[in-house]
Amino acid sequence: MKSARLLLALAVTAIGCSNDDGGGVGPDPLVISTPFDLTSMGRGPVPDRFTAELWVNGSTAYTTTWGTRTVNDVQARGNAVKIWDVSSATPVLVDSLIIEGATTLGDIQATADGKYLIVATESAGSIVIYDLQNPRRPALVTRFSNSDIDKGVHTAEVQPVGNKLYAFLCIDPRGSDKARLVIVDITDPSAPAMVFSQIMGTPFVHDVFVRDGILMTALWNDGIAIFDIGGGGRGGSVANPVQMGTAPIVGGKAHNIFWFRDQVTGIKRFAFVGEEGPGSIPSSSVGDVHVIDVTDMTNPREVAFYNVPGAGVHNFSADEERGILYAAYYNGGVRALSIRGDLGTCTADQKSSDGRCDLRKMNRELAKGPVGLSFPVYVWGVHFTDGKLYASDMLNGLFRLSTVPAF
After folding, report:
1. Which domain range does residue 225 map to?
2. Is 301 exposed, middle or buried (0-12, 13-18, 19+ CB in 10 A)?
3. Is residue 4's pLDDT more than 60?
4. The CATH number of the domain where 316 resides is what?
5. Residue 123 confidence (pLDDT)
6. Residue 101 is assigned to a structural domain of this protein
């Protein structure tokens, strides 16, 4: 569910490189055959702004906006949160929030209990916390900023650790100020308090994933790093993370992470890392899904990958009960992969030249979509929840998509 950084500079340029095994400009990725198709069940249009991040909270969804979009000579900034009724298949816009001073909004996430909404802002770096007693009329609780985050909060992950709630913030580099990871205690939403701040990543830390007292960070050209923050047995805490291990990814550009916990077996062996290369709205993007075996967190290693010719990955969401990873793939729409079982063992003809397993050759590719549209898509985010699949499209707004059928 994390926002793109490179697109700000590259949105109007042609794609300039290829990636692991073919990448770059290729055939239309939405006409490449897959076992199943994901179809549009309904769409809520956003014609005035670029749609970015997405979060669904019960029958209400929230989407953020990005950059500046010009339509009929009218410019609109990415300072709006769109609020949707998703009680039926077609999302219906019911309201908007305008966040003062922002030109691009980063992540948006509701707390697990559905009581609060947290929005990250760039330019005017902050996190804004809203009360969701009325989910479609969020009420401002507070806006938190300090000198460590005012350069711009690019991504924000909200997760509990122990009996407290934290926001893990990835802060933009600006001028001589380097990127950093900042952790804020938001257990009391009216009084956020910074508990950790550290320069991290080359040239930036882009995103994190937190689960079971483990912090995984996407450090762009530094690959990923794994920290004990209370669950790794190394004496780490949220205020004092202890690094356990690191791993590069082929091609660099580690953008986002998802650590899969199989709801059937309980196995937590594989983490998925999105690689974000350069792209051009709406025609091209580059970047693979990289599979990291984290069985030994002191020595994580890349064992597999998934490549879509002509398209690049952005954000993830998962159906952990069925073992399906949904990935937003910009001009490649949404891709669904089967991720249950051993992804690091394959036959010789299923391997790339560098020895990694190719998930497509392993028949792990399940579905693509939305198919059958008369207009291009550039899908930024995806969110699977309560058996339903949603996708935020920079160009076209909010989709409700069909899910992968039984396989």
Report:
1. 7-401
2. middle
3. no
4. 2.130.10.10
5. 84
6. yes
